[in-house]
Protein 1
Amino acid sequence: MDDLFLGITYPQNQVLIFPFVSIHVSVIIHVRLYVIFDNMTRKGFYWLFQIAGWGFLIFLGLLQEFQTENSIALRSLIQSLIIFCLGIGIGHLYRYFIIQRDWLSSNVVKAIPRIIFASIAIGTIFYGIEIIMVYVKETAGIGGEKDTLLRFFGGKEENMSTSFVVLRLTLAIINNALLFFIWSVIYFGYHFFERSRQQEIERLQWAASINETELNNLKAQLNPHFMFNAMNSIRALVEEDPVLCKKAITQLSNLLRNTLQTGKRKLVLIEEEMKIVQDYLALEKIRYEERLNIEIQLEDGIEKCLVPPLLLQTLVENAIKHGVSMIRKGGTLRIIGVSKGEYLHITILNDGKYNPKPAEGVGIGLKNSTKRLEILYGDKGSIEINNVDKRVETRVIIPKEKINRL
Amino acid sequence: MRAIIIDDERLARKELKSLLKEYHEIEIVDECSSPEEALKSIEKHNPDLLFLDIQMPEKTGFDLLQELDKSPKVVFVTAFDEYAVKAFEVNALDYLLKPVDPERLKETMAKVLSEDSEDEDSYDVPDRGILSSNDQIFIRDGEKCWFIYLKDVRMFESEGNYVRIYFETFKPLVLKSLNGLQERLDQKLFFRANRKYIINLKWVSHIENWFNGGLQVVLKDGEKVEISRRQAVKFKALMSL
């Protein structure tokens, strides 16, 4: 790691190096932690925490005894072991309770009062079990000392006031409750941390899938096959019909500009979308000439409704690609748009036959469009393709929405 | 050279025609808007060269080539067809991308015309209908396509309704009958060894006597084919002076 800082030769800079090194180390620890988190099962991690936590607690108790008494009584060892087992056992029951009640799915604000309440309750139970144990020990005559039970309640003094006993009792319970509070904080903390990490991963995955859709759309928009064929026709038009040629160049530029611009928006007006579709169709008409007939019937008023950008364009392009372009004599492409109640029905009819099981690499346009509708409208939007007497009917149904959603 | 342009788009044909104007060696004898039309036209004009679009309605340019017994020289003219271009990993033919770059066309034409002058020096021109060793055939097996000279074929093997064609390191399978094929092949070059095989005599390395008066032929790449007794008699007659 030192060689990273070879450039720094002045001694006073040594001071500066330290934070860098420590940041570096902490990054490494961080990364390692992630690796451990990933490699260990969550259950394994839970048991490790349980054992390490309770182990550390009894270790502290025994250490204290060793420091004051200079030795550890067998009795204390057994007692520690019992506390160890009891702690793990009760902790495990507590975890079972948490899972049963589905506390983990709640947020932090809700979790805190629950944790405090649960800790006090368990602390009390824990203390109760301890008392029972001591009582059992005493009545069974195990252990050397007498009056242990009494000692539990605060001491050997005979003239203790009741309030003093209650205070001792409360402190003991709080002591136990604190243990389980820490237990809970670790347990919930781990889960909240894990959950936020999971959410981060999901967020990234979502972002990636959005990017992928955008990329696919872009690829679909700039269909190279169409582009080069259009250019080829335009090249031939230069001599044959210069006026039409100029018009075609304008249409191609408009088409390019509009697809690039509207592609970024969430929704566009049908009239904007139809402009793109018409530019596109005009160019295809130049290419296919009399083989392509176009009929467009849009109900008055729906041009101000909203559609996902390039949705119709993609479907029309599909219709040409799999319809008219595959038929020697050509055919008719019909676009019909009507509003039915809360919904818009846009139908694209073309001559040809729809094959529901396309070859590999085909059908991406349709798949993308379906996915886009799903993201935008859930189950309220749909695309259906059917063969209807020697023609292919592509029907898009989307909720009718006007400008205010933009 | 006599050429035919095959493209379903009128403007695309027109564009190519105008680009080809300056090549006086090329005579456009016909224009076709579909493979069906082209099939008739090819039979009628027997052209030396095809300018062929790949994506066309109902049939592709590949389908057309498959239906031809022997293929004229072919220059593919396509807009953007990575799959089609990919098909020619081996024996790649020339292809032009639309819109055609005049400079690129110049290179292609130079290649086509130089090959043409080589062909004029070549020998044996058999009867019409019979394929000569310098004829090219188009083969498609699944996704792969090849253009090969008949002289490069070592042998044909019958497999049911199909024929397996052995050349270079490939053995593609095509839907043809061995008997039908035999009729079209030059008998001096291709010999029916037995029910299953037709071998190219130019590829024979040596011949051994075999059981029952038959023969075994070893081809230059080591493949062994048995010649049946009946065919062995013919074979000896053919081979002797």
Protein 2
Amino acid sequence: MKFYKVPGKQMKFDELFRLLNFCKTIQTEGTDPFDLDVKKFLETLKQYHNKWKSLDDLLLDAEAIAELAKIIELQGKWIKDRSSSFYIDPVLLELKLKMLEPQQLATAFFKSWHPIISLDRITPQRLTEGLAYWDALLPLGERIDEFPFPSAVKSTFDIEDLIELNILSKTEFDDSIRAVLNELEVRGRIEYHDFIYGASFETSVKRAYLTSYLVNEGKAELDINPLEEEVFISPSYYTNVNAQAHHTQSRSIPISLSYEDWLQWMQKRNQE
Amino acid sequence: MDAEEESGIRTERKVKKAAQLLFFRRHRTPGVKGWELKKALGDDYVEVIAVLNSVLDTLGMEVKRISEEGGEREGEEKKAERDRFMIVLKSPVIEKASGERIDNIAMLSATLAYIISKQGKVPRKAVEEFLSGKFPKQRVYFAIDRYIKQGYVGEDDKALYIGWRTRAEVDRKALLDLILT
């Protein structure tokens, strides 16, 4: 918006800018175009018509006339719509739509629907074209630029992100880890799944997540027997955890957890 | 073979070709543009379509001509090249002609009725808020995007309007009457 130092002129432009904004609101929001008093708008413009001096004044005058023309066009359309067979009080229709069940709405649609008939069929000619395309296609190794590797995944959240986002507090997280460690110390060396799985699958996943931190920090150890496909977990009694971490080569151990597996474990436990 | 017989065979061939062009999808958007029909059938393609229409009529179908910017058209041969032609069911006698979920159809029905009642154009946000009274917002956003993609609804500067496909497929007056009764 431009600013003018002459007080009278400032007032005049304020009024025009207000009217212009009102015109734009009617167009964007779809409100009743008859809310604008066209006669008064024109009288306002006429009142200042002889006082326009600069190019900016004339441009503003032209913009006001253009916006007014759009509103008059909308008023014409509004009258046309109201007089057409499509006109229904929007409030009444909105109320009716809110009252109807999805099933009833769908039925109304199907009854007024004349779907386009469109079928797909692969013709012999199209197959020949496909084959020619295949033949002309270079091996993937030579077209590797067409399939760039996705950039490094940045969407995963680690514990620091969750703390930063106030989803989890550091104290709360530390307490949860300590509770799992205490339990492990009480139970001693135990089969991993027997330790992880609990009354619900949700808590089991949570325990697996917390336990991974214990192992990662060297507070618990995993003992894997590949032949028997058994995994045992035990608390680490080493005094110097950091030293241990420095001397042992770290590696990732994937252990699968699944809902089906948890259900089987539950059944087995109930039988026992 | 006399000239009349020859002309009859030629017309029959053109009608077959027109039917295949219109029944089978050639692009992602259903229907065939007037200029495509002209290229395939010749300058008299509007007459060929009229013959096809009379054949389809007996099967409860019709060829509809829709302009991209406005409503249905008749005549105005020069503009026909820019228009889209498609075959629609004239009077549906089958109960189901779509594999869409009932929820999606209900939302589409409400969206169209809502837009029509607001003189054909309404801010997208208003439609989203209206639909989210009965469905989760995420599903509403997804559904509206889908209707736009399918051509049932158009979007212009964050406002929704009735799309070309609704103009082709939906009897809007009947839809409103059915909702209100």
